[in-house]
């Protein structure tokens, strides 16, 4: 593997028609904090994260994913990655330059093989954050993002070849074949996963909680608040992390999780897990069964942002 230039997942940017309802959900129910705002834009942080924000929300006529943002160590790494992608014929939608969002920095944007906009930046100022306290059931940080693709092997190869992501594990079944690749850009089991779907779209965004107790308290708060639960609470085998999946007001799936596995990358070998085995999807056996109804919710609506760069 060549030298890895991407270090971590920074944030996910979403556009939604009912901006006020989505904003209230993220701040009042999900537990994020607004740190900056502009006309029709909100930047939402996790209290325990040094990232200036982990979700960007934009008012728009159509629901879409605006971009997925990753970090790099230095401006030189950003330039090296941009040169690599341009030489390989990847479509650049914003050349390297100053980033005009909270924290600033230096970065650029491009389309991945499925047409979603990806941003890579470095030199972003860290945010003054705090320790999330015991029993405080709010996200500590952004954990990972899962993206739907019609050809998960093609998307996996693209991220391996162009961005040096590595495969951690795969979910498969005798009847459906391979349905999800877990991809990493650091020792965390996955910062991104690629799921098999009928169209490119957002599968889910995952948020790390302080611990098991805070994860369960957050799950309970959402249930008591009438938020629709899709799946959980339980514990996956791939990644060994807990999961509770809920729908936001626009039908996007969001996850509370904790204890995602950290790998020894020098010795790790990817597994292929048969997700038709119940202990693979949920080691604890506490979640509702994974079935076609649960899977369908995660297909989401077709992403209207494919090969269309966001306006900001």
TrEMBL record:
Keywords: Dioxygenase, Lyase, Oxidoreductase. Coiled coil: none annotated. GO terms for molecular function: dioxygenase activity; lyase activity. The keyword Lyase applies. Pfam families: Glyoxalase. PANTHER family: GLYOXALASE_BLEOMYCIN RESISTANCE PROTEIN_DIOXYGENASE, LYASE, PUTATIVE-RELATED-RELATED. This is Catechol 2,3-dioxygenase-like lactoylglutathione lyase family enzyme. It comes from Spinactinospora alkalitolerans.
